[in-house]
Design a protein that fits this description.
By secondary structure, the chain is mainly α. It has one domain. The protein is 33% helix and 6% strand. It holds the Pfam family Glyco_hydro_30. This is Glucosylceramidase. One of its GO terms (cellular component) is membrane. Belongs to the glycosyl hydrolase 30 family.
Length: 97
């Protein structure tokens, strides 16, 4: 589908990819939804997960313009959503040097 879009596009296509939730073994609640955050020990693993995703698309000639590490990060703090969630605090989203 992406290749077909690129063939007929008259302007550059910018693909934004997102994961809704990491695998449950990476999460504090061990569940796909509900109140859960990424375990600190899996921050780098999750980064590699995204990197490999981008790498695989690039191998197929498809460029990813941007990524997000979750969709609707606040939902992972409320625990009310019945769909895939992952909570991110502002502190966890900050790049620390």
């Amino acid at each position: 589908m992406i290749r077909a879009i690129n063939r007929v596009a008259t302007a550059p296509i910018h693909i934004v990819a997102t994961t809704w939730s990491p695998p449950i073994w990476m999460k504090t609640n061990h569940n796909i939804s509900g109140y859960g955050r990424l375990k600190k020990e899996y921050f780098q693993t999750y980064a590699w997960y995204h990197y490999k995703f981008i790498e695989q698309y690039a191998a197929q000639g498809i460029s990813i313009w941007a990524i997000t590490t979750t969709n609707e990060p606040i939902d992972g703090f409320f625990g009310l959503a019945r769909f895939n969630t992952l909570g991110w605090s502002i502190e966890d989203m900050v790049i620390k040097h």
